[in-house]
């Protein structure tokens, strides 16, 4: 393929980023777990859903405005949480924040950000929604401190990632013996007042996480986390809406509802955790069905085209998040590149809407996609027997 130097699509950005990033950092961003089946399936699964466009609908005005958690947003396209944006560009998450804000996109900030949450949110225009992603640590005081800071800084929701009791095994990182460059700091673990001072750590975890992040992650994350000691605990310490990230089944969606969560993100962590897990677009319908109107459903994983966003919305996602495309944009040209990634996807979404005869987000429903029949046996997306099976399973919970 002939890739443009002036990128015209996300594939171009990927190609450019691969050329400019050091191989260790590239490998860390790019890799999935083990054989990367799920990483690739996230992308290719979108291809098996086809569109069913309607004509002559007066598409002279297209709006992607919608609401998420009851608040207006310009677009259902958001930025998924990713560790260490400074591996892509020295402006790191501050640059991503400016890009998200310019596009009117929600930004979810990783706990493992290389820019403090206070600095990141300060780059927004005041109308951008920022959500804080959390991992829960054995030392709950560390997690609680992050929650308090997020509340104070103005984050409007907490996103608890539940698919990573341990990091998946990414063979590329193992081969590269990848560790982040020693000058990078995980600033959310440092005292915001003294964030540029090496003595500013608020926890030992921060110091060791900055040095060997993989091992530290495994050693400090709370692997005994459960709905009770995780979600119920979090609810007991904060009034912010809680969104669970990493949900792939109807059963866990029901549990998220039962535990008072505001939303779930259908995610397999970009194929970086359990290799062999279903592609997220294939898991989405069962989650949407189980969620009903009780809880909002978002998704991420493998979104590389505006038409992918369209398909996810048609299958019931309220918002769609992207990770690697934004990192590639950041590597290409800092905030301008990250914005370009979002803008390319945004314009492709608008064009897909126009060419499908849908003028606004509310009009996009499942009648606009052909769903592959029986793509997977357990829950063929949309199949009626799946719903019956699901009810039986849920009755046993
Ligand atoms: C380099 C990288 C770092 C990530 N770091 C985090 C993280 O800190 N927390 C988290 O919940 N998910 C993290 N994720 C997962 C993303 O939030 C998201 O689920 C996934 O990458 C979406 O797929 P996509 O990259 O195909 O868009 C990370 C993903 C990548 C690629
Ligand atoms: C630092 C890691 C815990 C970030 C992550 O979630 C990932 O690399 O997938």
From TrEMBL:
The keyword Oxidoreductase applies. The active site is at residue 269. Its cofactor is FMN. Keywords: Flavoprotein, FMN, Oxidoreductase. It comes from the Eukaryota. Residues 2-374 form the FMN hydroxy acid dehydrogenase domain. FMN binds at residues 81-83, 110, 133, 161, 245, 267, 300-304. It holds the Pfam family FMN_dh. CDD domains: alpha_hydroxyacid_oxid_FMN (cd02809). This is Oxidase FUB9. It comes from Coemansia interrupta. The gene is HAO1.
